[in-house]
Every structure is written in C-alpha cells, then in structure tokens.
Amino acid sequence: MNLTGHQLLGTSESAESNDSFFAYNPTLREEIDPAFHEASIHEIDTAVKLADTAFPIFRDLSPEKRAEFLLAITEEVQALGDALLERASVETAHPLPRCAAEWDRVITHTRQFAELIREGSWLDARIDLGNPDRKPLPKPDVRSLMEPMGPIAVFGASNFPIAISVLGTDTISAFAAGCPVIVKAHPAHPGTCELAARAILRAAARTGMPEGVFSLIQGRRNETSAYLVRHPSFEAVAFTGSLGGGRALFDIACSRPRPIPFYAEMGSVNPVFLLPGALNTRTAGIAQGFFAALTAGVGQFCTNPGLVLGIESPAWSDFQRLAGAAVSTYAPATMLHGGIHLAYTAGIEARRNTANLHLIAQSSTTPDPEKTEAGAYLFATTQQGLLADPTLLDELFGPTSTLVSCQNQGDFLAVAERLEGSLSATIHGTEEDLVEYRDLVDLLRRKVGRLIFNGYPVGLEICHSMHHGGPYPATTISSATSIGTRAIQRFVRPICYQDWPDAQLPEALKNGNPRNLFRLVNGKYSRESLS
Ligand code: NAP
Asked: In terms of residue numbers, what domain contains 37?
C-alpha cells in the first residue's frame, strides 16, 4: 500500500509545505519513508471549508445512509488487513497481536455506532403536546431532539495507533452523529494514520458521502494543532493524549472569541485499593493480576494502575513481596517514542530521589536506552509519605506503580480525599468489605469515572454502558465519555421546535413516528404514533 505523506483534503491531496518529517521505527531506530508534510494554513483552511460545506448535506442524510457509511468503513479497514497492522507495529513497537486487538476494537465500536444510528435512542426525542384551551394561557406544542453540532477536530494519542487514532471512537461517534471530521494525525504514527484515513475516504466514496466529510492533516508542530483548534468553523474538539497537550489545547479552545467544547481524555493514576477480605485470601492471584495490568503494553495505558493501597498486615507484606518478585522478571521493552521514554526515565529518576519513597523492585535486566527501552519499577511508601509529596499522585506513563502502606480505613480515606480525578478506581474485596468500606466507595464515586470490583483497570470492554472519563485532570468535561456509544452525545446538542408544522418537523418528532422510536411523550416513554 503506497503512502504519500500528503494532506488528504476530502478527495484531493496536497503537499504545499517543504517542512517535512519522517515516521520513526523505535525498535530499529531508523526513519521510515515517505516524508510527511506539515500542513500549511491554506491546507487546513481548505479542509475546514470542505467540512463546513459537507455538514448540512451529511447532517440530513437518512440514518440508514450514515450507518451504511460506517459499515463500509469496517469493510475497508478489514480489506487493509496486514498492511495496517504491520505499519502500526513498525511505527509504535507494539507487537502485531496488540495491533490486531486494536483493529478488532475498531470493527466492534464502528458496528455498534452503525446500530445506534438506526436504533435512534441517541436522538432523545421528546414531545409535549400543545393545548390551545389551557387557561390562563394556551400551552404550546414543544418538541426536541439532539442534532449534530458541525465540523469536529480530532487528535488521537500515540499509544493506540489504530483504536484511539484516525479510526477511534472520536471520529466514528462524530460521523454517527452527522458531523464531518478533520483528524490531526499523530506524528508518532503518521503512516498508520494515512492508511486508516484512506480507508475512510474509500468508504465515503463508495457510499456517496459528501466531499469533505473527512480530511486528514499531518503535522508535528504545536502551532499546527493550535491553528486547528482556533479555527472558527469547528464546533467541538476531541482530544486523547497527555495532560500537558490536552491542557494547552483546551486553554486555546476556551480563549477563542467563540469558545467551543474541548473534550480531552488525558492521563490518570487509577488507584487500586486492596481490602482485607480479598487480600487475606487471594494474595498471590491479585499480585499476578496487578503485574499483568502494570506491564501490559509496556505500561503505556491511560488505565495503568499507578497506585496500590493496602492495610499493613502479613498479607500486605506478602503482596508486596510477590508483586516485587514479578516486577524483577519483567524484560525491558521499547516504548512508543523518544519523548515518552524521556519523560518516563526522568520521572523514574525523580522518584528514586524522592524522600520517603523506596524502590522495592525493578526489572533485573537493565533497559537499553539506545532502544528507548523501559524497565518496570515498583516503589513503596506510607500514607504519610505519599501525602507529603503531591507529585506522587500524578500519572507517570510507563510500567511503574507505587505501593502505599496504610494503617486503617481512615488512611484510605485520607488518600482518596487527595486524589485528583481519575478514569478509574479498583477495589479488591468481598461484598462484606464493600459494606464496611462504604465511606471509601462513596468518596471514590466523586473522584472517578469507573469503579472496578475484583478486576483490573486495563482492558476496556467496548459496549454501550462503558464510561471512559472522569473529573479533571482525567478529562476536561467530566460528563463526557470517549469510549462506548454514549460518546455520541459530545457532538450533538438539543434543538427545540415550538408549534412547528408536522410536515416540517424532523422525522423523529413527527406525529406518525415513522422511525418507530421510543419517545418521551408528555413525560412517558412510548412508541405510539400521535393523531
Ligand atoms: P500527546 O503528546 O499529548 O499527543 C496527543 C496529540 O496532541 C498529538 O497530536 C500531539 O501532536 C498534540 N499535542 C501535544 N501537546 C501539544 C501542545 N502543547 N500543543 C499542541 N498540540 C499538542 O499524548 P501522547 O504522548 O500521544 O499520549 C500519551 C498520553 O495519553 C498519556 O498521558 C496517556 O495516559 C494518555 N491517554 C489517555 C487516554 C484516555 O482515554 N484518557 C487514552 C490513551 C492515552 P504533537 O506531537 O505534534 O505535539
């Protein structure tokens, strides 16, 4: 499959700028052809203009037509086969099976959104029938539903080159809503982005989507991203990545003359609480599961368990010993790119020099910095030691975690109180523990987006009920999710039709209910048509 490194502006290609960069193979430490051109202002403007023109046409397509487009994307992605997986693997050092798992995830979420468009519950159709005879004032006929917002800019993260990038839930849920998308390719996997983008464009051509429904912009300069976010024609931005990048672009979105929602999903510390009922009976199993979660994907998951808390006891000492023994067996592996490796090694160095923090285990094989390898590191401290240094509550992206010794539930609560927003919190315990530690659970409900019982935070189920979000700094908008079909709600807004003639209403609100939707009519859900 030939890559050009050009901007894909709807159905046209462009490479105006001489400013170019190469993808990099972190395993072989070499640049990969072709050169990718930094997008020019003119190219970005062209993509946005096309998206703006496409919007009213795309918005008003039938649900069936948009579902057809999404299903065509799954077919085109399947047709890419090994070319996509191999390029992603070369650009990220992810093994092929990991890339295949991401590919599966894309097929699953895209099919789920196709089904959702047809099913229609996301429209949240509501009808309050009018009553001209009401006294003292007549009651108007008021109906509302969700409508797509307009063009959306998407920024993916480096750690999911297939599933949280061009083909991620951000793009697919925006399409499902009826919004054109412009993706800014991640410079750590620009070739994977181009392959995925071409699959989307082939699907768009096959299913007759309007020109400009999708464009891909290449770039590695912050100014390119900033220009995109400032562009007046966007209605929202979806971002997945670091707190630093997310916050910088969020501030730009908020300081625009016309601010827009900026949905950033960022880093997270994902605390794990080991309650006595579980720790005393399943010490070895929990240690094994923790080690697997910690080191999956070289620890490069936003759901990596960065803190583990237990109450001092023989079982807690056993857990620390077993987890430490497992960590020492971890063979260092190549990280996604030099920047992440640099941040990880600097972070580990800083933690090694932190008072009250003890390195209790590390990979017994020394990582090779030339190969940007990361070893696993396990630190330990006490509740007091942790709370004495707020930086220990921050995400350190890579295969490292801190074990925190506590004396009692009060210590757990003191740590939970100080935690910043997180994507998840995990509790290992019995049902009796959950009753006894009710205050902890209640506190965590304010801090995180997902509560896991006797499991591990890594490995998200792709399903309708999934919530992948949480209070800041896990995200910038805590009511939103970036995974699961509820993600569509980020790109729609309610619009209300008052006393509107039936023939001119959107189908979902018409008296006859031609789409057989479940609608809230006068406060009660029903599928009935109205006379
Ligand atoms: P990243 O460096 O923030 O990159 C994400 C995107 O933002 C890239 O397109 C990047 O382009 C752009 N960007 C970054 N900083 C910028 C700035 N200051 N100004 C303008 N644009 C900027 O993130 P990453 O290293 O790819 O991903 C790792 C992080 O993502 C981890 O913290 C991880 O926890 C988080 N993550 C979160 C989730 C989630 O669902 N919550 C999922 C996966 C990963 P340039 O490189 O060109 O600047």
From this structure: 7-91+149-266+481-490
Q: What's the CA gap between 110 and 107, in Å, rounded? A: 5
Once rounded to an integer, what is the mean pLDDT over residues 453-471? 97
| Pair 309, 443 in one domain | yes
Whether the Cβ atoms of residue 367 and residue 273 lie closer than 8 Å to each other:
no
User: Which of 476, 418, 417, 484 lies closest to 450 in space, CA to CA?
Assistant: 484
Same domain as 293, residue 219: no
Residue 81 has pLDDT above 90, yes or no: no
The answer for residues whose C-beta is within 8 angstroms of residue 359's C-beta and 6 or more apart is 351, 352, 377, 378, 379
Pocket of ligand 1 contains residue 245 by CB under 6 Å: yes
For residue 2, name the pLDDT band (cuts at 50, 70, 90). Answer: confident
- Is the overall model pTM greater than 0.70, yes or no? yes
Determine which residue's CA is closest to atom 17 belonging to ligand 1.
245
Active site residues: 265, 302
Q: Is 487 in the pocket of ligand 1 (CB under 6 A)?
A: no
**Position 414 pLDDT exceeds 80:** yes
Q: Cβ(10) to ligand 1 under 6 A?
A: no
484 backbone φψ class: left, alpha, beta (φ>0; ψ -120 to 50) = left
Is there a single domain that holds both residue 256 and residue 320? Answer: no
CA dist 43 → 153, 195, 472 (Å):
14, 19, 33
